Amino acid sequence: MKLHVVYDKNGDILGAVHLGSSPIRVRPTVDENAGHRAADVHVPAEYQHYDLASVCHRLRVDVGAKFPDLRAKD
Q1: What average pLDDT does the chain have?
Q2: Domain residue extents for the chain
Q3: What does the pLDDT read at residue 21?
Q4: Cβ neighbours of 3 (radius 10 Å)
Q5: Less packed terminus of the chain by CB within 10 Å, N or C?
Q6: How far apart are the first and last CA of the chain?
Q7: pTM, whole model, 2 decimals?
Q8: Which of 53, 67, 68, 71 is nearest to 17 (CA)?
């Protein structure tokens, strides 16, 4: 599963949408003044069976990585 996510400086996911075979008409928007960023990321295999809300609650974006990636919250 691949997601488009908007996240804050700590990597907390603020908004997300599935990227897939269906056309996406709406994506969460970035508030650059608040330090938000956006990225397209893959959900790790062990979280593939979770729904979107659970993925956002359990994972965060690894902001220290060279490329944005999802990691479990500590």
Answers
A1: 90
A2: 2-72
A3: 65
A4: 21
A5: C
A6: 22
A7: 0.86
A8: 53
